[in-house]
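User: I'm preparing a small set of examples for a lab meeting where we compare how different chains pack in three dimensions. I only have the primary sequence for this one, and I'd like the structure in token form so I can line it up with the others. Please keep the answer compact; I'll paste it straight into my notes.
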Amino acid sequence: MIGLSVGLVFLAFFLKKKSQETGVQFCYLPNCRVLKDLRSKPLTYSSQAEAELAAKNLDSTDILYVLNEGDVDFKKSDTKSEPCKTFIINATLKSNDIEMTFNNCREEVILSEIELK
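Assistant: Understood. Below is the structure token output for the 117-residue chain.
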């Protein structure tokens, strides 16, 4: 038991240091995995999303914040659609609740809709 405990502490210390140096994230929960996948692909905007970004005074840093800190609403999302899965992400941004709809395609991610609540 003592050896196992020392090994687990060493492993936790080693992995923590490794992740800080390389920026690697260990995502095991569904929310984290979806957000990481969305961040890993090029992001494009639909014409509707571009208009909403301009009207709501939002920019790419706000979108990045939502992709880092948001919560995926799996009940509203369509994870089975083809060719692009649709994910709805909720976050609190600038004291407002915001809901963004992303289409996760094989090669890119499309921001299709933005709604302030």
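A couple of notes for your slides: Residues 26-116 form a domain with the YaeB-like fold fold (CATH 3.30.2310.40). The radius of gyration is 18 Å.

User: Perfect, thanks.
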